[in-house]
Structure formats: C-alpha cells, structure tokens
Amino acid sequence: MADFHQNGNIATLHNLRSSDTNYLTRELVAIKDTRKISLVLPSLFSELEGDALPHILDELSEVPYLHRIIIGLDQANAEQYRYAKQYFSRLPQQHIVIWNDSPRMKAIDDRLAQMDLAPSESGKGKNVWSCMGYMMACQDSAVMAIHDCDILTYDKEMLARLVYPVANPSFPYQMAKGFYPRIGDGKLNGRVSRMLVAPILIALKRVIGDRDYIDFLRSFRYPLSGEFAMRTNILPDLRMPSDWGLEIGVLSEAWRNFAPKSVCQVEIADAYDHKHQNLSLEDKTKGLSRMSIDICKSIFRKLAADGTVFTEEIFRTLKATYYRSALDLLECYYNDARMNGLSIDRHMEERAAELFAENIVEAGHSFLENPHETPFIPTWSRVQSADPDLMEDRRKAAHLDFEE
C-alpha cells in the first residue's frame, strides 16, 4: 500500500518504504521521559494459551520507549490469574496484570452499580475502560496505545508506527488509528469491514444523503481495526461502548469531540492476521452476526443524534441499497484478490451479505423499539464526579491483587 493518497478529511500517514523504523524508535526513546507512553493490552485468559501472545511478548520485550504495559485480564479465576502474572513477568518494562474478576474489582463494580454507573456488559469495551481508569489514576502517561493480544503477524514496528503520530509533540494529532490489509493463509480477510461497513456507508449516503459523519467514517481505510493511540488528556471524557460496536463507537467519539486535523490514520503493517469469528448464521447473539447488529446500531444511534430521522421504510430501503452495494464491492474484492494470488469464497461472501442485510433491518427495528438504548460506559469524568475516590480505589485494588 505504498502510495501517498490523502482523502481530504483526515490525515493518512503512509509507510512509503523509504527507510526502516529504527529512526522512529530513536525519536520515541528521545521523548519518552517528557511524554511517557503506556500500552494497554485487553486480554482473555484463553489468549494466554494461543499462538499469538508469546510472539507479541517477544516483540514487546525489545521496545525501549514504553513507560508501562497494562494488561487487563478477563475470564480468569485465582489460579489462572497467578499463572498470568508469571506469564507476563518476562516483560522488562514496568507492567501490571489487572484481574478484572477479582473480589476487589467486583466490589468496585458493585459501587458503580449502586450509582447506576456500571458497564452494561462485560467484554473488550469494559476491559479497555478499566485499564484507562487505572492509567489515569497513575497520572504519569501522556500517550496511551491499545492493541489486541491475538495478532498472529505482530511486529514491534506496528507499535512504533501507531504511537509516533500522537507522541511526537510537533504533530497536532490527538488520536491515531492503525490500518493495514487483512490477509492471511492465502485469503482476503476482514469480511465485516469489507462486506458490511464499506457498503452500508455507501448505502446510507444514497438513502439519507450527504452527512459529514458518513464521510468521516468512509475516510478510514480499516475502520474496524483494534489499534488506537491517543493522548491521555482526551480520555476522561471518552465514552466507551460496551458492545461489539467498540471501534465504530470510538471513531464516533473522535468525530464528536475533535477537529478533523487532530485525527489521523497510520499504516502499521503490510499484512495483518488474527483469530477469526464465526459468521454465526443460526444465532444472532454470537459471532459476526452479533457484531454486525451492534455496529449498525452504533451508526444509526450516531446519525439519529445528529438529526437523522429513521423509519421502518428507510431501513427497508437501506437493506436493498446495501445489498446491491455489497455485491458490487464483492466483484472488486474478488478481482483484487485474484490479481494478488489470494482467494475469496464467493458463496460465503454472498451469504454474509445476505445475513448482514437481514441484520440491518434487525438493528433498525431494535433501534426504533428502544431509541434511548445507550450501551455506553459512563465517562471517567462522570464517575469521578459521582465518586471522587473510586478511580484511586480501583488502582489500589489492582495493585493489591498484583502484589498478592
């Protein structure tokens, strides 16, 4: 993807292959004392048993500019937490494993519930939110980066390229989002981004007309990437979705809170692969089916908040327009894959488009039935206002768990 195209809405920072990334690392090392950089790793315990995380730790062990690594551990009992502490102990950087299911953390969650501020569901969104609260309580980081723990093609260059735009004090960016081609095992991957997000944004523009928000989302080459870097001053007022609309939700927050010149996307890898979710044709509460519904609802909520009026008729029209757009794009993806020696299962791609078309109406119906649904975790500013001690108490609880 070595080009220099700019879309005019946000800055796109490319990898022009003109040099290696050693100079980025040297610059990050030079500024690490004045602009401390922390990395958040939201992890399930099951990922400690996978193939990706050992290599990720090998690569991170060689990163000299990280101030702290914060691992948020979900779905772990006490024995598994002790194992996780040992598992991550080879990291040379200052680090902590936050046991999100510990009795101390559950007690903090109960305090939030009593104030009606508890996250509505567990998952990556709550995990990241918890880690953000810990980092803000430490009050010593200027930059926060996030990436997943299941990246099979991980390289430390990805992190350097991700954090550099927001760590460099001469750059204006408050947030950087990574992009890359989703390829692996000889296949073109990234089905939800390709076959749902891209065509539904085209369809929305045709059905409801031009919207700045739609143009903003269409500016991102891979809007569902899980790799972000942000300056920490924006975190207290950032609303984190708790459902599978996390990535779109964060972009929506960026559109709401920041000037376009303060947001960029950065090319962080030539190829990227991680674990794949099942399409889940028979169960809309799981897999890519659940993800597609949550993503659609996230987009509909944001457009409604911006003044768009939705009806059942609009959603039916959107379904038909989406499906035609998806099939048109499928032809492009198929030809692109063939030219690069990659494969696409056209039957499953079309089956996915059919499922996503159904789920657009499902998401629209759910939105109309419950337009006030807000699957957002309260901002840390609001939590601090309601209970000024909670963030610090959560930090202390994490340390007590880790020390014991």
From TrEMBL:
GO molecular function annotations of the record = transferase activity
Keywords attached to this Swiss-Prot or TrEMBL record, sorted alphabetically, are: Transferase
The cross-references to SUPFAM superfamilies, in alphabetical order and at most eight, read: Nucleotide-diphospho-sugar transferases (SSF53448)
InterPro entries named in the record: Nucleotide-diphossugar_trans
Determine the domain of life of the protein's source. Bacteria
User: In its UniProt entry, what is this protein called?
Assistant: Glycosyl transferase
Q: Which organism is it from?
A: Thalassovita mangrovi
